[in-house]
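Recap from last week: sequence in, structure out.
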Amino acid sequence: MKALLKLKIRLMKDNRTLYFIMIVMSIVFAGIFGNSMGGSYVATIAVVDDDQSIEAANLITKLTSDYNFKVNLVSYDEAVNQVMNRDAISVVQLNKDFYEKSEGIQIKQIRETVESAQLSRILEDEIALINNTNYLVDQSTQIIEKINPTLDKQTLSSVIKTTFLKHWESKRPISTTLSISDATNAFSGGLSIHYVVGMTLFFVTYSLMFTVGDILEDKRLHTLDRMLVSPSTRWDMLAANLISAMIIGTFQIIIMVMTGQFLFGIEWGRNLLLVIGIGILYIFVVTAMSLFVVSLVKTMAQLGALSPIILTGMAMLGGCMWPLEIITSKPLLMLANFTPHKWAIAAIESAVVHGNVDESTIISAIVLLMMGTGYLILGERVLYFKSLKDN
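Predicted structure tokens:
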């Protein structure tokens, strides 16, 4: 087997362009996805203020300062043009006395988005706050007027409202705080780590698939026939192909770790060897899976047509291209459990966050080991029965 393994390693130079492209693409796509989905995006809304009141001015200020929207104060026609040109997500029209009417605020948009849904809830809450404030101000004014009828009602209402809003900001009845218990939390930088890991695990599958696919080339060139009459066993030939593929995959995992740390500023935590170990276990699973897929096809052309469908589909289901936390479909989440990508990403993220082996890491490792063993047995058996049929 040593001679076969040495031969396979020497032949890797024929695929060096493929390996280089896969490494570069994983880095490029990790940067693109990480910046676009984990960046500092601010939604823009076009506001048409037909009320011109203090309440409207306060609401617009809150949308900018408290809720991080970018507000463009424009006319109605210009607001519609901004939405049609995708320069704003929504038109928010504040009608006269908007807080006293059931349809005092009109929202127009092309499609529903997360930001527009958030905007609708914010406006509902703010209108409720304005109405509650006005009710309390009216009640307080009436009580004070009974005690001192000589006071100017308008001035009194203004003072009460200003006092109420001032104390509301500093003494809200409910407040929430967020704290991170572990200062080494690797996700403080956003989604960069997820996409560095996800894109690497996605593109490494292509390198492994076509490296294992050399078995098909051995068949086409009748190299396999000469190997079969040599002292080497069938398992020696399979092991040589699998080990050479795992060497390539392990190299890409190491590149992932180095790139994440030095290019994207990711802190992998105290247990870097655990991250690499999980990556190698994932490489074993995908290599065995590649053997199974190769055993089902006859030519490299068929492998080239089938592998993008399988690999891309599994990567999408497994969460390489987006976090599974944002998926709400139960069927999709169930299918994700059958992909090695899901378990590898979960184990790596858990190892980075906690810095040690926990229950989640152990479960993921066991599942990956079972997947790899199952694919390896299936691939070897299919190849064996196909060889019997051919002979």
